[in-house]
## 1
Amino acid sequence: MMWVEEIETLPRAGLESIQLKRLQALVRRMYDKVLPYRAKMDAAGVKPGDIQSLADLRKLPFTTKDDLRDNYPFGLFATPMDDVIRVHASSGTTGKSTVVGYTAADIGLWASVMARCLTMAGVTKGDMVHNAYGYGLFTGGLGAHYGIEALGATVIPVSGGNSKRQITIMRDFGSTVLLSTPSYALNLADAMIDSGVSPEELKLRVGIHGAEPWSENMREEVERKLGIRAVDIYGLSEIIGPGVAMECLHSDHGMHILEDNFLPEIVDPDTLEPLPYGETGELVFTTLTKEAFPLIRYRTKDISRLFLEPCGCGRTLIRMEKVTGRTDDMLIIRGVNVFPSQVEHVLVGIEGVEPHYQIEVTRDGNLDVMAVLVEVSDHIFSDEIKVLEKLSKKIQAEIKDMLGVTCKVKLVEPRSIQRSEGKAQRVIDRRKM
Amino acid sequence: MRVEQIAVFLENKSGRLAEITRILAENDINIRALSVADTADFGILRLIVDKVDLAKEALRAGGFTVGKTNVVAVEVPDRSGGLASVLKVVNEAGLNVEYMYAFVNKSGANAVLIFRFDEMDKAIEMLQANSFTLLTGTQICAL
């Protein structure tokens, strides 16, 4: 079943002509309304009229997270704030978060792309959808919520946390679809065992999981423990939030990109030259239809691959491979984006703490555990345990404030964190993906 | 009447204490008293040694974080009630003990109690007013 079959099964030529028209209008609008991007185009010597074909996309300058930071919070918005009806935010690389805005039409667009994604997973208006993505500044919860409502299914806006109560709700309300991060799905599976509820008592049929990387092994585990079919969803707040790409029930691998709205490219992360379909590189998106916060050639830093092989579902939309890594040092800890630079920012702000640190990520059961190793210098050392414990609690609290993630702080001896000649190894990720 | 104590940060991994004592031995430093305070993640080794500055430099050169603090050493007869008599005074004066440890001197007649108080000056004053014997670092090393 499809939400908008005429778009999703368009022959490529038809789809590309829609994309080109939208791209041309977008570039003209960006040039007129978004001055920082206009300056970039001028510097690159490109005018809106130069975009004559989709291949001309490569003439346009990229947009990066740094551009978002430099224009924090609303500097890249293309509409007056009067027309913006909602903002969301996610982690930036330093103290400033990445802020995104939506007009009423954008919220409608988001709901419709999300409804299309849900449809790909076989969700219909008859479903009871358990939305365990976090509600708030994070785009996951509300993004999915509006899509579920647009589809006409029943949404349970349960958000994250309190797993035992979630199991009770699932059983009593008869939830048929679960939306959550994959690690939270496993957490729920454990809570089910703890509550003595068996998968047979639930009506769960399908799980839609994203917002963090997960392996095929993890998928099998989710499917087995919850007795469901688990599919992958992709999105990022800069592009719209959840609803950029979705795995359908027929796809043997990869997710369909809703490319009538989000134009994908794969570029070589070093040369930034576009790569042909099938090659692995950095995923870049241009938002073709957003009003408040459109982006041209936004570098996601996610590593993936695009491919056009036909899918069993009949959709002609291009597919992207499950994201296999990042071109930067961003970590995803329990669904939250974490940059080592943010941790550094916190540490240098604490008197006496030297910015020699290392982030160690492990997985305890289903939960990501982040430990920050901090060297104890003479300045912060005390012969009293309580002074050092107070310090480690302070570091923990400030990191929690900045990132929204609880970490463990491990005090270590001076010079025990390896110094390398070049770039220090800031992150040791021991999770098995 | 204060005694200099050195404190060393100990990461919770094997061999650290052995490494510290090796460095002290190499520098011919004698440990008079010590205690280890530990949490799940780290420990603090507190030492009273005969050559405080040399110990500090040698350990620092060995890559350790070392601090120097003042503590009070009280000598009491080694019999029941010895510690209680000191703590009674401390308690009545409203002082807090941050930490303490103790050892018995060679003759076996007296015990030496090492204290770190929240208010060191007041503690020294109160203990002296109550006629307790406070030892200097030199006296401890001579025991």
Note: Chain B has two domains: 3-69, 70-142.
## 2
Amino acid sequence: MDSLVEISRMQFAFTALVHFVFVPLTLGLSFLLVIMETVYVITGNKIYRSMTQFWGKLFGINFAMGVATGLTMEFQFGTNWAYYSHYVGDIFGVPLAIEGMMAFFLESTFVGLFFVGWKRLSKYQHLLVTFLVALGSNMSALWILIANGWMQNPVGAAFNAETMRMELTNFSDLLFNPVAQSKFVHTVSAGYVTGSVFVLAISAWYLLKGRHIEFAKRSFAIAAGFGLAGIASAIVLGDESGYTIGDVQKAKMAAIEAEWETQPAPASFTLIGLPDQDTMQTRYAIQIPYALGLIATRSIDEPVEGLKEIITRNTARIKDGIIAYGALQQMHKGQKDAATIALLKAHENNLGYALLLRKYTPNVVDATDAQIHEAAMHSVPRVAPLFFTFRIMVASGFTLLLLFVLAAWAVYKNNFMDKPWLLRMALWSLPLPWLAAELGWFVAEYGRQPWTISGILPTWLSTSSLTAGSVTASFIAFVLFYSALSVGEMYLMIKYARKGPALLNAH
Amino acid sequence: MFDYETLKLIWWALVGILLIGFALTDGFDLGVGALLRIVGKNDEERRVIINCVGPTWDGNQVWLILGAGAVFAAWPVVYAVSFSVLYPAMLAALFALFFRPTGFEYRSKLTSLQWRGFWDWALTAGGALPAIVFGAAFGLMLTGIPFHFDAEMRVVMDGGILDTLSPFAILAGLVSLTMLMMHGAAFLNVKTRAAVQTQARQALRFAAIAFIALFALAGYWVIYHLQGYHIATIGNMNAGLAPTDKHVVMAVGAWMQNFYDMPWMWIAPAMGFAGALAAIMLAALPVTAFLTTGISVTGVVLTAGFALFPFMLPSSSLADHSLTVWDASSSEHSLGLMLIAAAIFVPLILAYTTWVYRVLRGPVLVEDVRRDEYGMY
């Protein structure tokens, strides 16, 4: 079972991270196309139409891979995570279904018209089509992140012993989940940054080569402005603000910060160090006083909980959950009297914590103290991977902030043409938004461990009843398919980017 | 608004509508993919064919995505069991589906004939394989698949991963393939002219004849050989039920019971046959022929749905654990909410999809793809 869970997790991580290579560019580039085309419609200057068409070509090459890899995400909950799908589908499925109806249909129906509709539509109609594609893709992100936000902070749901699953009780809680809201803003902002860096870097390359100057200058300027807004929003509204809500989010936060002990308020921020899970210490730590308290609680008098305290509390929750688990077992044996039902109800909130024990013993009700201790120690994520990836993400973000401040300033001064170092910096920054986005997802999802649904369903119990062998086989197939398709995609992308807007003259 | 039992029924109808929407729209995209190398004799003809569906197939595919999403949300346990127990088939369909977004977008972006030749095969697989797998999935709904639940409602597979491959499932896969090739050919018959149209018309007639024969064979099999399922006793259908709390009996021909009880249901298989027959005879009237293949496709999906009702996924190893519309649905709250969402968005979707097709009306000609090397798919 261990290896099945591990290989299923690896497959999910791989397919989700590959999907998210293509998604942020779609999110950002679609709005950049709207901006360029709006300028064309207002000014009538044809160069902005060429820009929309050329960047639109690159958008299309990327979009196809986003669609292909996105299909996997929908299939995968059912194929590899069947128990998860049964256990929370009543809630988790709702935002996914609404996403299809409200967003994905919009995006997919109009994207074809964006490419072939230039001659069939008036310029206002075409702009509307472009806008609807951008709107669709961004609303798609909203609903997906509402679903994901619920995994991090499951609100508005209750356990139903009759159907053995979680069921939706309050839709507006699900919809206005603060974790989902901050994740949405952070994620789409990261997408706007990605789109902007993409346009900025390729335009800078044209400028360095002295090609397509008028075209590249205008593209550079638009990307610099949009990117500055995006990176400011991504940093200021970083979804760390959502990490103070809910116990599992707090554990994630403590792990990111390597906060072993609860510090007196205001907590200091560990800039860098070497976290050690076994001894629960961070060696060689360099700390900045007050900073963590400010970042995490937006105040100077609230403490930030440390991992040791969280583990102590989780131990109590596991013990309490065992009572609920015992009551549920009695009900499965047919003892459905009022007392048993009331007992389950009273301890239901901690049922998920009792399920953590299933990894360590088949017989939860008679779990030993040692087993409870082990489950509690593993009820928080591993610190070191989160500690480092988070810091690399933040460093990438601040580097991009610097880039966009410089670029926007140079655009304002209209002298970026004379700053080859800035153009080179833009070009070499091309991988940074992807690095930050991938690491951001790693932090969010690895930091949720050992849960798929925080506090409710452990990852260890969420899989399908498959053999590790068949998941390994499909994993290998995914790697082969994705690698081959990505090579094709990259080849076309580079070839078309090299051709530049000249390819439009073939009309 | 509605009681729980009615809501369950409404969602059965709604998912049915989504599946019909998928079969009608993306169905012809799949059929066109499968026919790409048969109807298109050279690179230019194939490019014409690709451009017939290129701008719209992506929107059509959302019927599939939404269909699967609706199954996830409305019947989570059906989604969980079907996708995990039919693991190899689902992944085969998925991998084949990868070739469509990439194939339509990438194929004509380079002029190399090897590149284009590769993508032509990829698009063929991307059309034919999913058509077969989705048909086979319907076949397996009729035969039942081997699974049961433990006390925690975890699915347990009874049998190996390849035990699900049955002759009837393969037959159902072929029914689906020929049906969608017929529908795809009828679409090309509308959207093309000259040589491509002649070839499409020929393919339409061949596919329709094969479909009629296979659909009849499948019907014969269901009536005289296949074990059907029937609910003997079940709890309160207006409550939240576990799929394990009922008694189901199996008997040859049981799938016909609904048709005997409600004879109006015979209209569904009649549509399946009559639509295909009409398409053969009216192939020279492209729009009419396309409408009749649409009728045929709708009839076939309805036939399967009517036969199965209220079953969605019968268990062949422990029939009592079969999944039905009464005991595999989401909670009343979720179903009600999504019904409101569907009532708002499905009409909107139909409206803007119609507008897009109106904008793109008219045939795709060889001269078009010759003239506009970079503007088309």
Note: The mean pLDDT of chain B is 93.
